[in-house]
Amino acid sequence: MAELAALWIVRHGESTANVAATAAEQSGAELIELTHRDADVPLSATGEEQARATARWLAGLPEARRPDLAVVSPYLRAVRTAELALAGTGVPASRDERLRDRELGILDGLTGHGVRRRFPDEATRRARLGKFYYRPPGGESWTDVALRLRTLLADLRRDHPGRRVLLFGHDALVFLLRYLVEGLTEAELMALTGEHVIANCSVTGWSAAPDGRLVPEIFNAVDHLRQQGARPTREDEVHAEPV
Fold this sequence. Notes:
By secondary structure, the protein is an alpha/beta fold. It contains nine helices and six strands. The protein has helices spanning 16-27, 45-59, 76-86, 112-118, 120-129, 142-159, 171-182, 186-195, 223-227; strands spanning 6-11, 69-72, 93-95, 164-169, 203-208, 214-221. The chain has a six-stranded mixed beta sheet with strand order 3-2-4-1-5-6. Helix 2 (45-59) runs parallel beside helix 3 (76-86), helix 4 (112-118) crosses helix 5 and helix 7 packs antiparallel against helix 8.
């Protein structure tokens, strides 16, 4: 199967849920104060400025480096990031539910402290199974998300060989694309998640090597935000995973 010429993923800009989750974790609360379902969480004012800064960065790329198409998570925070970032570029965009954030089931809206208090058996099970394979009741494991990303990558390679593709999604997807594209092991992936927090509106990308393979080019980069006068943020998603 032919390879893409380049692949990038931009994590959405800072959302109101990112801000609420950080505040809840820092205060020791059990519940995150959310006013929307996960699919409808909007960007914060900072997130909108990050997306506009990403637009200015994209507009400044040489034509040979600009994406040919974009594929976007259907969640509002990613949709709005893409709308602002792609404004005026002429890059066609489509939505794909396979780029949605990981679903947390019964743990949705809880902090790590809240999970340990309200679902201690789940905290124990997660610790035993490990982050990669643990699936909360009604939710998804990291391997579940990897499976949907595998099918998306296969479709992109089949339908857009030799094209430059830009994805807009969520932090877990950034890690899992590295796992899939670079052939990482579970241990290598989990080491990455322990060492890094994916920044809002950060860019991670791969480009085709002479032999056609996608090779890493940039990871979790936010220099474009600073250069465009936007404040980088590294707030976690509402993951509610006990440690």
